[in-house]
Amino acid sequence: MTTTLAQAMGHFAEQAGLQQLEGVADTCLPGVRFFRASRSTPRQPLTYESGILILGQGNKIIHLGEQQVAYGPGSYLVVGVPLPLECEAYCRPGEPILGLSVAVDLQRLHQQVTRLYPPPSRMTPCRAIECGLSCACLPAELDAACQRLLVALASPVEAAILGPGLLEEILYRVLTGEQGHVLLQLAHHDGHYARIARVLGRIHRDYAEPLTVESLAGAAHMSLSTFHRAFRQVTRVSPLQYLKQIRLNRARELIQREGRGIAEAAALVGYNSPSQFSREYKRHFACNPSGDQAA
């Protein structure tokens, strides 16, 4: 009898003691995370980290500006850069959402691209810079690699020995697949997409610092006008809007998951004015931070 990806994920959850997990858990393999949710959730703001996302069970709809992307079993999502967006999730009673997230290791990516397009041949030209969010049908080869990865993850020793090779295969299947152009853009070091990706990495590291658009444009080696245009093409929002959403999403995590006070959370994400923080929080999440604190 052929095992489905959903069954493989359910078996892994049992072996790893994650049957009651509500959210995301790290696995014994760096860069690989498992997520589970037993309830459907309405559309709400959050941040998607960059990587390859595979759902074995349940369905999600992603909203990014006017773009809408639906994915579920039989498809996978390639997130080229971390994106603040809105997500709604659906599952049936007794059938929790089950998924796997695989981070893209840039060193491994560059090595594979070099092998696929060795000098003096030229790398396949990247498409025009675009939003770092796309969905594709899950090919049988990628499905099988994910199932083998789930089996390996149940044993730290097996994961340590077989895991790196399985991650190589998963990256290769995505890189040479329908949405491989997203990863090729990341590997194109001097391209606008890769430059914006590096700036987004800085924002995620230093979001609590007083970042300016001028300093970010300088880091990307772009003029202000070029930077604004490229940034919006990749993320669908302006640099300041992006920074604000990252700060607010992080603040909500601090309040809900870590039990931080409102003023403390505001300060930790870079707000000097608690009142301004509360106003923008309510506008972003349609609720006061005190409501999330009580929850």
Would you write up a description of this structure?
The longest helix is centred in the middle third of the chain and has 20 residues, at 156-175. A six-stranded antiparallel beta sheet has the order 1-2-9-4-7-10. It is α+β, with helices and mostly antiparallel strands and 295 residues long. β1 and β2 (32-37) form a beta hairpin. It has two domains: 5-179, Jelly Rolls; 192-294, Arc Repressor Mutant, subunit A (Orthogonal Bundle). Helices cover 48% and strands 20% of the residues. It has helices at 5-15, 106-116, 140-153, 156-175, 180-187, 192-206, 213-219, 224-235, 239-256, 262-268, 274-285, 289-294; strands spanning 23-26, 32-37, 41-48, 51-57, 59-64, 67-71, 75-79, 83-90, 97-102, 133-137. The protein is built from twelve helices and ten strands.
Primary descriptors:
295 residues, alpha+beta, 6-stranded antiparallel sheet, 4-stranded antiparallel sheet, 48% helix
Question: Any chance you could write out the topology, listing elements then pairs?
Answer:
Blueprint: H1 5-15, E1 23-26, E2 32-37, E3 41-48, E4 51-57, E5 59-64, E6 67-71, E7 75-79, E8 83-90, E9 97-102, H2 106-116, E10 133-137, H3 140-153, H4 156-175, H5 180-187, H6 192-206, H7 213-219, H8 224-235, H9 239-256, H10 262-268, H11 274-285, H12 289-294
Antiparallel strand pairs: 1-2, 2-9, 3-8, 4-7, 4-9, 5-6, 5-8, 7-10
Helix pairs in contact: 1-3, 2-4, 2-5, 3-4, 7-8, 9-10
